[in-house]
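Hello again, I could really use a second opinion on something today. I've been staring at a protein lately and its backbone has me curious. Can you walk me through what the tokens say about the fold? Take your time with it, there's no hurry, and the full record follows here:
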Amino acid sequence: MNRKEVKPYGSADKSKKEEVAEMFNNISGRYDFLNHFLSVGIDRIWRKKAIAQLRELKPQRMLDIATGTGDFALEALKLKPQEIIGVDISEGMLAVGREKMKKRGVDHIISMRLGDSEALPFEDGYFDAFTVGFGVRNYENLEKGLSEMLRVLRPGGKGIILEFSKPKKFPVKQYYAFHSKYIIPFFGKRISKDDKAYAYLPESVAAFPEGEDFKAILRKVGYKDVKSRTVGGGIATIYSGIK
């Protein structure tokens, strides 16, 4: 399946991976505020629903990929794991996340590490579960990233992927189109001081293979019992798969 590559800055001499890291470094200081402001806090509800899908598994070792400042990792604490490792390619985002973990007194459980989703620095089968929140559409090589995440899962382990999707029904479809085209770029540009970052968000969502297309990719690279559930009227989707 040929997919159009969307990059934050469209530079000819930088890879998507390099541009995504640069973008998140640029906006890291304002990311948490903007994230919750632009989603009106609904993203927190979505993460709670996603983590609830891991409750029966009772994972002890968890990996949060594209962890950013660690919101998904913090939500995962409700599962009472022994260890959570957050991985991201943006050192700027990780620095904010490390401070957040220290302030909350959970840095002995949650560690934040610089790393690439397409070359994870962990042995095969190390984790009981992984989470990814709004990160897979930023992968340079989607199938490679998904395969790496599967590699580090133990047999029977479960992966949860929360990603934006395109709502199909009135009135959410119309509201989302307006919000994506006007609200996100307007406030994102002014608050983050990065002209491109929040224009990239709706562009990357539009280019991402969602729903059945994404589930087919998960099955292709080896995930079993692949399921999906839309949230927020279809603004986002929670995908799950088993190794």
